[in-house]
Amino acid sequence: MSAPLSPGFVNGDVSFWYRSLPTPGNPLDGDREADVAIVGAGYTGLWTAYYLKKAQPSLKVVVLEKEFAGFGASGRNGGWLTGALAGDPERYAKTHGPDAARRLQRAMFAAVDEVIRVAAEEGVEADIVKGGITTVARSAAQAGRLRDDLAWQREWGWDEEDVRLLSPGEMNERLRVDGALSATWSPHCARIQPAKLVRGLARAVRDLGVEIFEGTPVTRIVGGGAVTPYGTVTAPYVLRCTEGFTANLPGHHRDWLPMNSSMIVTEPLPEEVWETIGWAKRELLGDMAHYYMYAQRTADDRIAFGGRGKPYLFGSKVNERGLTHTWTVDALWDLLVSFFPSVASSSVAHAWSGVLGVPRDWCATVHVDHTTGLGWAGGYTGHGVTTTNLAGRTLCDLVLRRDSELTGLPWVDRRVRSWEPEPLRWLGVHSMYRLYRLADARESRGMTKTSTLAKIANKITGH
Prior knowledge:
This protein is an alpha/beta fold.
């Protein structure tokens, strides 16, 4: 059915998290020299700048941003500060061994608390609540995957304190999802307001003496410099922190695929609706569908609900302003109401989309080449809110040539092949999600095991 839209409904305009868009700061006004030039003022670039200046206050760090700080995924995501690994631990273990993969996972868990610590220390008010994450299964096949996933997590060192199966009573007490058969809960997740976090981090970075030039597109990255229409920033180190927008840079068109994800947010819900839903602890919510969803209860008592819309645009194009197709808004609304029927009395206040970076092997990477001075981090596959913090600290240690636990993690210097040329990219991604939708539909009709269609979809793209 068509989603009911609020009288003031907004489509795109970056995201709901901003309400009103910030005015970009000053652009670059000529050539500059720096010790480190960072391309992209999202979470990765800002965390990197933050830790560099904390480690060596004398460093001259310059950040270049095409729009405004937090314009990309950092200001559009679902607000999941999650400890989930941006990649398959088995793939990291294949090159570095299982213990290294487990260390990376533990570093991710710790990064959740590190973000919370820094936000408190720097006075960043980002509506942070560490309520953990509940993952629900709403079909027999999903329940089977949930059990298998829990067993797999145990193999990788997740104990009862990291994730546990909820009893029916606990499920009902925490969060009442219509049709939920089983659920797990993990403490390693916190709700945030994404734009507040990234704008607060930008303010903290500026307070440390970092120059952030907004409205300054980088047209070319070379060893020793970042070129813009308004001048060149020369620096021994140039770090690319552009995530889903990386495909726009010359020479990087097939590095990371820009995958679209879309969200809607309701009007504030009345108390009687929350009495039927629960959600008092404001944990994050996900599910075990192949075409999965993600949600949070916002600080002002709305539900922000996301999932895949039109997953990929031909030629790695990016819809920069976040405009979302009507059918995507309708599909997300239908799914939301199927989770929480009492929400049907509300309406959609805002819809938007953003892009995340997906490497060919679906595993994030961090790299610095001391010969050329070029470095990067990204490919977070949708887990970037926390992973960017770990990446920023790792880039800092790599630039400063520190021999630390972070620089020894298995995602450092990981080499990944490029995505296929078009039309193979488009066909592969759209085939994968078409098969996921069909698999979910079949499973919802009573299948007890994971649909073969989903397994075929995973093979198509190596997911």
